[in-house]
């Protein structure tokens, strides 16, 4: 998709990474949304206001949106708002990512540099697969999941909505992780994890 005009929702931290990838993919970023205009504007993008305000200019500037929000719950809520406005959420995949032809990627998902998504994996909507993470065969990630840099999900792992898998964490094959879970950075998950739990360590234990 070349020269596609998009609006970026969220323009700090993770939003910078999304913006850079969009520009490398020949998207035209018409403007960005934040609660207030950002002092730091590394890509010289126009401020359009806040998507939660009635006077947000973005609704009239483009029908296509990309998400630069790192927080899982906020990202999911904003995606719902965009959908209710009858606008389109676009997925964004870095050119260095390796995605199996048999994998399925949900709408609004961002896949960063050097990510591997292997055979028959399913990635839900509005998720983040961050730098260099590995999603092995037949994994199922539900909506608004964030897999941080360097994390590895072995085969047949299931991850519930809005769960965060920390940087360099490893999840054993066949593990089921519930929704709204936090897996700490560097953790090794060898047991199933229930909803709303925090697990850390090697081997990971409930905190």
Structure description:
This protein is an alpha/beta fold and 207 residues long. The protein is 14% helix and 27% strand. It is built from 3 helices and 23 strands. It has an 8-stranded mixed beta sheet, covered by helices on one side. Strand 22 and strand 23 form a beta hairpin. The mean pLDDT is 96.
Short précis:
Helices cover 14% and strands 27% of the residues.
| Main beta-sheet annotation | 8 strands, mixed
Strand content: 25-35%
* Proportion in helices: 10-25%
Overall pLDDT level: 96
Write the layout of secondary structure elements.
Elements: E1 5-9, H1 14-24, E2 28-33, H2 58-61, E3 64-67, H3 72-84, E4 88-89, E5 92-93, E6 98-99, E7 104-105, E8 110-111, E9 116-117, E10 122-123, E11 128-129, E12 134-135, E13 140-141, E14 146-147, E15 152-153, E16 158-159, E17 164-165, E18 170-171, E19 176-177, E20 182-183, E21 188-189, E22 198-200, E23 205-206
